[in-house]
Amino acid sequence: MTTTKSRRLPRAVRERQMLDAAVAVFAEHGYHAASMDEIAERAGISKPMVYAYLGTKEELFVACINRESELLMTAVAEEIVGEMEPDERLWRGLRAFLGFVAAHRDAWIVLYRQARSQGVPFASEVEASRTRVVDAVAALLGGAAERMEPGPVKGDLAAMATALVGAGEALADWIADHPDADPEAAAARLMNLVWLGFGTLLTGARWTPPAA
Amino acid sequence: MTTTKSRRLPRAVRERQMLDAAVAVFAEHGYHAASMDEIAERAGISKPMVYAYLGTKEELFVACINRESELLMTAVAEEIVGEMEPDERLWRGLRAFLGFVAAHRDAWIVLYRQARSQGVPFASEVEASRTRVVDAVAALLGGAAERMEPGPVKGDLAAMATALVGAGEALADWIADHPDADPEAAAARLMNLVWLGFGTLLTGARWTPPAA
Amino acid sequence: MTTTKSRRLPRAVRERQMLDAAVAVFAEHGYHAASMDEIAERAGISKPMVYAYLGTKEELFVACINRESELLMTAVAEEIVGEMEPDERLWRGLRAFLGFVAAHRDAWIVLYRQARSQGVPFASEVEASRTRVVDAVAALLGGAAERMEPGPVKGDLAAMATALVGAGEALADWIADHPDADPEAAAARLMNLVWLGFGTLLTGARWTPPAA
Amino acid sequence: MTTTKSRRLPRAVRERQMLDAAVAVFAEHGYHAASMDEIAERAGISKPMVYAYLGTKEELFVACINRESELLMTAVAEEIVGEMEPDERLWRGLRAFLGFVAAHRDAWIVLYRQARSQGVPFASEVEASRTRVVDAVAALLGGAAERMEPGPVKGDLAAMATALVGAGEALADWIADHPDADPEAAAARLMNLVWLGFGTLLTGARWTPPAA
DNA sequence: GATGAATGAGGATTCATTCAT
DNA sequence: CATGAATGAATCCTCATTCAT
Predict the structure, then answer these.
(1) What is the pLDDT of residues A116-156, one digit of tens each?
(2) Contact flag A171-B163 (C-beta cutoff 8 Å)
(3) Which SUPFAM superfamilies match (chains A, B, C, D) (predicted)?
C-alpha cells in the first residue's frame, strides 16, 4: 500500500497547507468570524502547529495577504515586461489581473474585501500595494498623454487612475462572484470604455457639465 | 418646569441616537469588532434599551444599512427626476452620489467596506441595492446607445455599467478617506473619462487588442 | 423562610466577595497556578463578573495586594500613634503586626510569599511598602541612638533595620504556618533578642514590655 | 581531527549545562512563568534531551533546588567544622552564608523566593532544609545558654532561632538585589544586633569578630 | 420605561510533554 | 544519541444577550 497521506511532514509543506486553509477560511467568513480552530482543522493539523509556524491570528492573516498579494503582483508583472505601447501594457496588465482573480477567487476576496475592511493593521498593508498600482497606472496614463497636446492636466491623472483601478476591481469582484465569467472579455470591455475615453481626451475633447 | 435635559425622549428620537451611534461605531471598528457596549455608551443609553428598540446586533446592523442606504438612494434619486439627456442624468447622479459620501463618510464606510465584507446575511442586503444601481446605469447606457448605430452590443452594457459603478465607488472611497477632496471635481473627471469613452464607442469606434 | 442568600447583590458586596475569594485562592495556589475559574467559583459568581468589576488577573492580584497591604498597615499604624519610647513603639508595632498575620494568614501569604516572588509588576508594589517599613524602623532606631553616645554609625542602621524587619517577617511566616502560635509571645521573644541581644540575655537580663 | 565544538558531551557535563540554564531561567521568571523551551534553548540543547536527562519540569525544578541547596549547605558547613565558641561559629556560618548568596544570586533567588512560594511539592523540600538550619541555630544558642544561668527558657530558643535565621535571610535577599553590597559587613552588623542587642549597643558595647 | 447585575458560550493563545525519524 | 514535528489540555479573556429590580 502506498502511503498517500503521511504524517510528520516537513515544515514548508505544512506552512503551505496552513496558508491555503487560512485563505479559504478567511475568504469564507471574514477575518473576525474566522476561527483558528477551523483553520487548523481544515489544514488537517492541530492548532498549536499553526501558532508555532505562522504565529498569531493577526500574523497569519498578514502572511496570507502577503503571499496572495505577491502572487497577484507577480502574475501581472510578468505580463508587462519589456517595451510596448501604453494601451497594450494596460490591456495586458488588466487581462493578467482579471485572469488571476478568476483563477484565485479566495485570494481576491481576502485581499479586496477582507483586508481592506479591517482596521489600520491590515488595511494599510494592502492599501500600500494598491497605491503603488494606482501610481503605476497614473504614470502609464501620463506617459501616453505626453505625446499629444493638449492632454489632460496633471491633477486629473491621479483621479483617473483611481477610477480606472476601481473599475478594474469592480470587474474583478464581479468575476469572483461569477465563476463562469470570462476575464478576457471583461478586460476587453473595460479597455473599450476607458481607452477610447482616454484617447479622446488626448485629442483635447472635453465633456462639460450642462448649464445647471 | 422646562426640562433642559429630558430623559424620557420619544421613541423616534432615541432610535435616531442609537442608529447614529451604531453607524459611527461600526464605521470605526467594523461589524465584528464593534461592541454593543460601546454603541450603547456612545448613544448615551443603557444596553437593554438598545435591545428593546432595535433588537440584536445583527438587526441593528441591518437597520443601519437600511437607513443609510435609503438616505443615499434618496439623495441621488432627487437629483435625477424629470426628463434629461443621458449624460446629464449620469452626471447629476454621480455628483449627488459623491456629494453624499463626502457629507456622510461613516455611512459610506459602513455600506461599502463593512456590509460587503460580512458574510451572506448583510452582503446580500447591500448587493441588492448595488445591483439595482448597476441595472439603472446599464439601462441609461442602453438608452443612449439605442439612438445610434452601431452601438455596443447588449452583453457589453452590464460589464460596462459594473465598471462604471466600480469607478464611482473607488472615487467615493477615496473621498471618504480624504475629507478635503472635492466631490464635484471628482465627478467631472470620471465623466470625462467615461463619457468620452462611451460616446466614442457609440460612433462605432472600437479598441482592439494588438495582435498577440 | 428568610432568604439568607439573595442573588443580585450590590456591587460593593460582590467586590468584597471576589477579593476574599481571590486572596484565598492566590494564597493556596500562588499567582500563576491560581485560575480565574476557581476564584470566580469560590466567590459564587461567574467569571465575567470578576472581569467586569476587578479587571484582569493581574489587576485582581494588585487589588488583593493593595487591600491587604492597607489593612495591615492600618492595623499597625493604629497601635503606634502618639508619643512613646522607641522600644515601646517597636514592641507595639511588632505585636500588632504579628497579631494581624495570625488573624489573616492568607493575606500574609499573598503579600509575603506570592507578591514578592512574582516579577516586577507586583514585587515592586510590595517592595515599596516594605521599604517604607524598613525606613521607619531605621528612623526609630536612629531616634533611639541619638540620645546616647557612642551609638551605632548611620550606615549600620539600614542593615539593622533590614535584619530586624526580616526577623519579624520570619516570625510572621512561622505564625502563618502554625495557627496555634501565640503572636504576643513571639513578639516578646523578638524584642528580647533584638533589643537586648542574645549575649546579654545570657547574663540574665530581660526586656519586659512596659505596663500597658 | 580535533573537534573544537564537540557535540557528544558526557552526560555529566550536559546535565550541568541544563541545570545551570534551568536555575537561571527559574530565577528570572519564576517556576510557572519559566518555559521548558527557554531552558532547553539556553542550555543549547533540544527539549527532548532535557526530558530524557532530568525528567519533567517538576523534577527539573527539584533537581535545581537540591543542587543549589547542597552547595549552599556545604559552603557553610565547611566553615564551621571543629571546636569553637558559639559566637564564632555563628559568625563564621553567617559570613559563609551571605558570601555564598553574593556569589550565587540566582541560586538564592530560586531557593528562597521561588521554591518557597510554590505549593507543597517544592516548598516542603526547601522547608526541610530550612528547619534543619533553624534547629542547628537553636542548638547553638542552647549550647551557649547551658553554661550560664539563668538563660533563656527552652521554648524561647526555637522562636529566637527562627527570628535569627529570618534576619539572615532578609540580609541575604537584600544582598541578592544589591550586587555591590559587602556580605562580610552585613554579617558583622547582624552579629552586633543579635548577639549584643540594640539596647546594649546604645551603651557603646560592640561585638568584634575573633581574630581569624 | 430604564438599568445595574449577571452569565453561557466561545475564541485566542500557551505549554508541558511525546513520537517518529 | 538527538531532534523537528506534533498535540491535548488548560487558561485568560470578551461579548452578545437577558433578568430582576
Answers:
(1) 888 777 888 888 899 999 999 989 888 877 765 555 556 67
(2) yes
(3) Homeodomain-like (SSF46689), Tetracyclin repressor-like, C-terminal domain (SSF48498)
